[in-house]
Structure formats: structure tokens, C-alpha cells
Specification:
Layout: H1 2-21, H2 36-46, E1 49-54, E2 57-62, H3 65-74, E3 81-82, H4 86-92, H5 102-118, H6 124-142, H7 152-167, H8 177-194, H9 196-203, H10 205-208, H11 214-238, H12 248-258, H13 269-300, H14 302-315, H15 331-344, E4 353-354, E5 359-361, E6 364-366, E7 371-374, H16 376-380, H17 423-440, E8 441-444, E9 458-459, E10 463-464, E11 471-474
Parallel strand pairs: 2-7
Antiparallel strand pairs: 1-2, 3-4, 4-7, 5-6, 8-11, 9-10
Helix pairs in contact: 6-7, 6-17, 7-8, 7-13, 8-9, 8-11, 11-13, 13-14, 13-15, 13-17
Length: 475
């Protein structure tokens, strides 16, 4: 008890010192690290390119669609760097796809995109896997028998099995306790990274490492994820057929064996394990969280849910599985799914970029080793591109005739050379899973639509929804 009390006191004192040291360079105003709302407001005074300091780290914040596009797309080569985020750096030690730079990043990204496409990402083969997985999801929802339940791990199991098929060549039973534990680890990692303590770790890692706290258990849990990835690789080694690769791991092992004698090859064991972890983590939590948000918003707006169901019934009915070809005949449904992604603003600050050399941008010089935050929040809420940016409004993606219309400021997957490698997979999953669910169920909650709070419970690296119980009533 004494240890616990002392640790809480020390933690509170350290937190106070840290927070009071985070000062905006042009003003004597305290700012919580990564506060997108503060950055958005300050941009109205200081413009769309601002410098601040998060601890000792010089950081440039880019605000608004035009600014972010000019950086990530028009000047892609200058802004291709990825910042060495301390939390991720400690876990992956610079290996893998997510935070690597230079030749390592180029080789791994090219290989990952090519391999995932070869195994069906964004194509008919992957569509079949998602359709099959959606049937398992529907079965688990039916088993609830219209009783309230927390959908969190129902959805993460389903989404994760799709990336597992690509990476590991298998799906896992929903009753597999080890699989469920790994999903809980992944959920905990994202929640920690989005918490105040997680953000402070990225600013003052040397200090936070000296203190007790959740980060200690998080790193232990992540080691279990690494061990899981290693075990899958070992099993693949035992029965690898170079002429018939089954999945991403097989392809990496084949390439690793081919380049064993090449000194500068990035196809080695550590990069393989780290990239497998990258795909398993990113391919599980982001899409399942978006679907969880979508169901919240449909419960909050039952008139939108009803209109989607009518459109789906007219075009597909309730007998066959939806396909991606149906999307063009479901403009309102497609608009709602896009609006969910825009409105939930899942990764508001974007993954941080990095100046690998001095950059000249809009008349400013961004010095080498500066962290760059191209704020996706400011793009998805840009008042110049959205009629009602703070409102959940599917009309953002519909023209006056009710046809689907694109919006260039729709960048939930970021843009440029560092955009999400799994974008086409995520789009397919969101469409097929959500349409399948609405074909067979109407969603509500015990307290009624007004009780559903769609504001995030945690907002940091990611905007994470509150826990809730829904009722899936068969149609």
C-alpha cells in the first residue's frame, strides 16, 4: 500500500512538471501534447504551418487540406520520413515497415504491397475471404438472441481473421482463448498509446521508464505478441515450399533465403518479425474500431440505419452476400460508410513524419530532425471542404441527385508515399461487414438512441469509442 501511494504521488508530481514544461513557442500558453483542438485554433492566428515543442522535440504542425496535400502529395519525397516514435522504437527497435526510413522502408513497402496484392488484397479472392468471415460474425450475433452485449471483441476477432488469412494463411476459432488474449493485448496497446501516459512516454521516455505504471505491463504484453509472431514463422519454416507460397510469411522466408548472401538486404529475420507484428496490429484494431463507431452512429441515428436497410434490401435483398460490385448501386450506404470514417477521425494527428534533411516549404525552412504532424483532423474537419464538418452528415458524399460524390479532403488513410498499405483491404472490409450486418439485423441499445454518446472516450494517437452494449435484433 505504501509503495502504491508513493508511486501515485511521484507520478502526479512528475506529470505536473512535464505538463507545465510543454509550452507553445510563440505563446506562453500550456498545451497538452498532441491536442488537435488547440492546434486547430492556433492555426487561425498563426497560419497553417506552426512550430511547437513537445518536450525538447521541435515539431512542425501542418493544418488544413491544402497544406497537408501540398506536403504529402506535391512534395512527397521531402515528407516521406517517419519519426522515431519512442514507444514504437522500443518495441520494434527500428525494424519493420512502420517506422523505418530509407532503403529499409522502400524495400519493405514495395514487397509488402506486392505480396498482399498477390494474395488478393483489394481483389475477388480477398472479397471471398471477407464474405466467408462475415458469415461467422453473423452467427455470433445471432447467438446473443437479442440480449445486450459489448461488440468489441466480436468485431476484432472477425477483422483480425482477415489479416491472419493474408499473413499467417489461417483463421482462428472465435473460441481460441490465446487468440482472444492477443486481441486484448492489441486493444490495450492502442488505448495506452492514445492515453496521456502513452503520449508522455513518447515525449519523455527516459523519465517515464524510471516510474511504475501501465507502460511496464504493456511492454510485457507486446513481448507475447512478438513470441506469437516468432512461433508462426518457425512453423512456416518446417513445411515451406518455395514453389508454392501460402501467405505473407512464406513469401518473406523465400525472399530471405534468396538474399542471404546480399549484405545490404533488408530481408532478414528481425525485419520479418517486426513487419508481421505491424500488419497484425494495424490490420486488426483500426478497422474493427471504425465498425464499432459505425454501429454507435447508426444506433444514434436510427433514420439513417433504416434508410440504409431499405436501399440494401432493394439492391441485394437478404439472401446473398454483398459484393464490392454492389457499392455503385448503394450510393447512400456508401456515403454513410465514408462519413463514418470522416466523422470518427480515427487517427487525428496522423502518424508523425520526420525531416530527414532540411526542407524548404511555403517559404519556411524545416530543419533536419524535426517531427512533422500533418493533421488529418484538420483535413477531415476543413470548413472549406465540408458543409457541416462537426456534424455526422452523409450528404457530404451525395450530390443533389442522390448519387455518390467524392471529396478530395477525404483522407482517413493519409496520403502520399506513407499512406496506409492496407487501405484497399480496409475499404472492402468496412463495406462488406457493415452491409452484411444491416442485411440481417437492426441495431439498438438499452437506453435508446439519445443515450448513445459518440464522443471518444480517449483521444490521443487515436480517437477511441466508449464501451457500450448493443442489441442486434434479427430482421
Amino acid at each position: 500500500l505504501l509503495y502504491w501511494l508513493c508511486s501515485r504521488v511521484v507520478k502526479s508530481l512528475v506529470l505536473h512538471v512535464i505538463l507545465t514544461s510543454l509550452k507553445y513557442v510563440r505563446q506562453d500558453i500550456l498545451v497538452h501534447a498532441g491536442d488537435v483542438y488547440v492546434f486547430q485554433q492556433w492555426s487561425k492566428t498563426y497560419g497553417p504551418v506552426m512550430t511547437t515543442y513537445l518536450g525538447a522535440q521541435r515539431t512542425v504542425v501542418l493544418v488544413g487540406y491544402e497544406t497537408v496535400k501540398e506536403a504529402l502529395v506535391d512534395n512527397a519525397d521531402n515528407f516521406v520520413g517517419r519519426a522515431p516514435v519512442p514507444f514504437i522504437q522500443r518495441v520494434l527497435k527500428g525494424y519493420g515497415l512502420t517506422i523505418s526510413n530509407g532503403e529499409r522502408w522502400r524495400q519493405l513497402r514495395r514487397f509488402t504491397l506486392t505480396t498482399l496484392r498477390d494474395f488478393g488484397m483489394g481483389r475477388k479472392r480477398m472479397e471471398g475471404w471477407i464474405q466467408e468471415e462475415s458469415k461467422h460474425l453473423l452467427d455470433t450475433f445471432r447467438e446473443t438472441k437479442s440480449a445486450p452485449f459489448d461488440p468489441t471483441f466480436y468485431l476484432s476477432r472477425t477483422v483480425s481473421n482477415v489479416i491472419c488469412a493474408l499473413v499467417f494463411g489461417q483463421r482462428f476459432s472465435y473460441d481460441d482463448n490465446n487468440f482472444l488474449h492477443l486481441l486484448q493485448v492489441i486493444s490495450g496497446v492502442l488505448r495506452f498509446g492514445s492515453s496521456s501516459w502513452g503520449q508522455l512516454y513518447n515525449i519523455f521516455p527516459w523519465l517515464i521508464d524510471l516510474l511504475p505504471g501501465k507502460h511496464v505491463n504493456i511492454f510485457k504484453d507486446l513481448e507475447a505478441l512478438r513470441v506469437f509472431a516468432m512461433s508462426k514463422v518457425e512453423k512456416h519454416k518446417e513445411n515451406l515450399d518455395p514453389d508454392s507460397p501460402r501467405d505473407f510469411i512464406d513469401c518473406f522466408l523465400i525472399r530471405l533465403n534468396q538474399e542471404k548472401g546480399i549484405s545490404n538486404s533488408e530481408f532478414h529475420y528481425e525485419n520479418m518479425i517486426a513487419t508481421v507484428q505491424n500488419l497484425f496490429l494495424a490490420g486488426t484494431e483500426t478497422t474493427s474500431t471504425t465498425i464499432r463507431y459505425a454501429l454507435m452512429l447508426l444506433i444514434r441515428h436510427p433514420e439513417i440505419q433504416e434508410r440504409m436497410q431499405k436501399e440494401i434490401d432493394t439492391v441485394i435483398g437478404q439472401e446473398r452476400s454483398p459484393t464490392m460490385d454492389d457499392r455503385k448501386s448503394l450510393p447512400f450506404t456508401d456515403a454513410v460508410i465514408h462519413e463514418v470514417q470522416r466523422y470518427v477521425d480515427l487517427v487525428p494527428l496522423n502518424l508523425p513524419h520526420y525531416a530527414l534533411r532540411d526542407i524548404t516549404f511555403r517559404g519556411y525552412t524545416i530543419p533536419k530532425d524535426t517531427v512533422i504532424l500533418p493533421m488529418l483532423h484538420s483535413v477531415l474537419r476543413d470548413e472549406a471542404h465540408w458543409d457541416s464538418p462537426w456534424t455526422f452528415n452523409p450528404n457530404h458524399f451525395l450530390d443533389t441527385n442522390g448519387n455518390f460524390k467524392k471529396n478530395p479532403a477525404f483522407l482517413p488513410f493519409s496520403a502520399g508515399k506513407r499512406s496506409c498499405v492496407g487501405e484497399s483491404l480496409a475499404r472492402m472490409e468496412l463495406f462488406i461487414f457493415l452491409v452484411s450486418l444491416l442485411q440481417h439485423f437492426t441495431f439498438s441499445c438499452p437506453g435508446g438512441p439519445a443515450s448513445m454518446d459518440t464522443s471518444p472516450e480517449v483521444s490521443g494517437f487515436a480517437n477511441l469509442p466508449r464501451k457500450y452494449h448493443l442489441i442486434a435484433t434479427p430482421r
